[in-house]
Design brief:
Strand 2, helix 3 and strand 3 form a beta-alpha-beta unit. The protein is built from 10 helices and 5 strands.
Length: 241
């Protein structure tokens, strides 16, 4: 896999060379910034991301969606290499705010010196699971016409628990851990002590800020104070809708 990944990198470099000389985009330090919000599903991530979209023109940065095949939060090694190289070398799209349902990816292991800024939001595990359970049945206001996987199923969450259903199984409470743990297969092993410790380590050492859904306004206020280049005006926008 690593040999294939190196081949992918060479192919990207060759394509850039074949495209001919490109005018180099020079960036000052304030603009040479990438934020990655590897959003956990059903943690108010859409509401927060909409703020980034609403502010990007005013604050002059780019918002890009990380769209993976079948919404798989884990990328192959080849895709990891391509993603890291594209994000770090795509100077025309800096400063950039990337968002998507993907697990944490350590840029340093690919030799990147200036790593992106990671942020995220987590939610009470049971509240998140209940929200996701009903989302699969009724969707949301953003794409009301989209047919969801469990559409038509009228069973309540409590009824699902009583019947021992798979959609409300205790194992589903684990989902937030892998988003902080990373791309290792062990991260998705429900109940893994190593995965939990790795997730906690990354949250503390690799994330700039992690908020909680129940205190989202505080999270946004801190971001505006700490990263005004991106989030100037975010608190007022959140309060006024």
């Amino acid at each position: 896999e690593r040999a294939i990944a190196r081949h992918e990198v060479r192919e990207i470099e060759q394509r850039h060379t074949a495209d001919g000389p490109r005018q180099e985009v020079t960036l000052d330090e304030e603009d040479d910034v990438v934020i990655i919000y590897n959003r956990v599903p059903k943690t108010a991530s859409t509401s927060f991301t909409n703020i980034a979209y609403d502010l990007c023109a005013k604050n002059k940065y780019h918002v890009l969606h990380i769209n993976t095949t079948k919404n798989n939060p884990v990328m192959s090694l080849q895709d990891q290499v391509r993603f890291v190289k594209n994000v770090t070398s795509w100077r025309e799209m800096k400063p950039g705010f990337y968002h998507g349902h993907v697990s944490y990816l350590d840029f340093a292991k690919f030799g990147v010196k200036k790593k992106p800024i990671y942020i995220n939001v987590i939610r009470d595990p049971i509240e998140r699971l209940v929200s996701y359970y009903y989302f699969l049945r009724f969707g949301d206001d953003y794409r009301p016409g989209l047919r969801r996987r469990k559409q038509g199923d009228k069973k309540t969450f409590d009824e699902c628990v009583a019947a021992g259903g798979s959609d409300c199984a205790p194992e589903k409470l684990w989902l937030q851990i892998p988003f902080f743990c990373g791309h290792s297969s062990e991260c998705w092993n429900v109940g893994s002590r190593w995965a939990l410790e790795q997730a906690k380590y990354n949250l503390i050492n690799e994330y700039f800020l992690v908020g909680v859904t129940e205190e989202l306004e505080d999270f946004i206020m801190l971001l505006e104070a700490a990263l005004p280049r991106f989030f100037r005006g975010a608190t007022e926008l959140y309060r006024t809708g």
